[in-house]
């Protein structure tokens, strides 16, 4: 998994203490090859036009959220369990957008983007692998 690129609104909300990385509901959505990361994008509604759709695709809730202190490597790490889309046939994946789910696409803020494609979906399983040591985000 590539390192996440953090959206500006997420940086702002993190510094203001408005994101609760180990207790809020965070989800992963897949975007296709038409997506171009823009740090100024704010909400899911800003990227939903590039979201995949098709057999086996749904937004996935991230489970086992953790925030850990790693003094050995001088960092804090936000982690979660990996997720897998089973039997997905929904187009070509360019990357994964992680966001905090509130009530709708219009009020659910984007957190980070992970480019890991292009990957053509063909009915096989596709995973968003989150390393248990490296996590989703690292604060150095």
Kindly describe this structure.
- This protein has 140 residues and is mainly beta.
- The chain has one domain (5-139).
- Helices cover 6% and strands 36% of the residues.
- It contains 1 helix and 10 strands; from the N terminus they run βαβββββββββ.
- The strands form 3 sheets. Strands 1-8-7-2-3 form a 5-stranded antiparallel beta sheet. It has a 3-stranded antiparallel beta sheet with strand order 4-5-10, with no helix packed on it. A two-stranded antiparallel sheet has the order 6-9.
- The model has no long low-confidence stretch (mean pLDDT 95).
Write the layout of secondary structure elements.
Layout: E1 5-6, H1 8-15, E2 26-32, E3 60-61, E4 66-70, E5 75-79, E6 83-85, E7 92-100, E8 110-120, E9 126-128, E10 137-139
In short:
The protein is mainly beta.
Cα Rg: 15 Å
Biggest sheet record = 5 strands, antiparallel
* Overall pLDDT score: 95
Percent helix range = under 10%
The total count of strands amounts to: 10
**Biggest sheet, spatial arrangement of strands:** 1-8-7-2-3
Described by its quaternary structure, the protein is single chain
Query: Order of SSEs, N→C?
Result: EHEEEEEEEEE
What labels describe this entry?
about 140 residues; mainly beta; three-stranded antiparallel β-sheet; 1 helix
